[in-house]
Amino acid sequence: MNEPTGNPDKITSLWAQAEADRAELARLKTGVRRRMLLAVRLGVVDIERACSMLSAWGLPQLPRRWAVSCELLAVARCWQTGADRAIKHIRDIAPEQWQQAAGPDDSVHTVWPLEARFDPAAIADNDIRAYVVTARLGACVWVSAESRQAAVTQARARLVQIQHDLTEMTIDASVLERIEADEERTRPQPLRPPRDAPHRPPMPSLPPPLRLADAIRAQRRARRELAEFVRDIRARVIAALSDAEVHGRGHRDPHDLVDWFMVSSGLAGLPRSQQFAVTATVAMTIEATSAEQARSLSVQMLADSWPHYPQPGLPITFSDHRSVAEVAAGQGGFQVVWRVTYLVCQRAHRSAALAKEAVRLQLDTAALRAADVSLEVAELGLRPDRRLDPYQD
């Protein structure tokens, strides 16, 4: 049913909601980029993954050093005894001249001589003549930029500066036969939040609509854009965590760091779960000809019961604690004892008994006798869940 065109109070209210959602979206974008920069500085996320996620969210990437390749014409004037020597002259001086004018990281990697023209206006001295040599240079300059296009723009500005600083040859930076930035040839650079983090999306001041239908559409669009941005952030960050592309720092687990990233950016943190470390001591008798063979066979027998491969429905993941405690010759073969720690995450319950039962079910895959397994439980408390789904969490 169409509302009247009027109703200014409702139009004002809907427009205020739309403006609030737009402001919240801008605030989130600013905060997310700043914290992504901090994560890169701390070594929690590689800059390539960080830039990939920022780009997917429609945010400027973080500054990197880009190698920009270009081809341009260079002209040198020299006094030589022949055209061959004049060509050799420009081959010799071009790389050195370029580095002196540009910098130690920049280079001329190719010189294609095109012409060595005798200048009849110059006065010759015996066999020495003046030559004007033209060559095409294949060069590279390194620039700091947030994107490929920005790198090309920065490189053009650098070339103008190089043009002014060359002394023994000239170039025309406004005429380039080719210029491109290579995504595969980037380098990290030191990042500083005051300089590199600020990103404030434009917030143009728009007048409120005159029609109620327009106000409703604006409010719904702003709410949808905010929800989609939040959902995509969570999905991509959790996917990076699941793919082991988020690294711990010191004693802090990657899950805790991602939770900090979410909360400090103004988003809901990761789902919590009650967590238990259940250490299983598994004793096995293995028929083998050596201790090494016994150990290898025991690994094969327990392969499906390791915490890395939880059975469907079991809230189990792995910790870093797995060791063979003992391999000793005994009656009937070798006695092999493993100590394996399972991390059990319970979102809906807090039960050490259920945690132990989950591990026993996991160990059933190895067809072990109950007497061969002893379990110790340590409660770790309520922490960010270690078992996450990018599409649901």
UniProtKB/TrEMBL annotation:
| Pro residues composition bias: residue spans | 200-210
Q: What is this protein called?
A: Uncharacterized protein
Listed Basic and acidic residues bias regions: 178-199
Query: Which residue stretches belong to region Disordered?
Result: 178-210
Domain of life (superkingdom): Bacteria
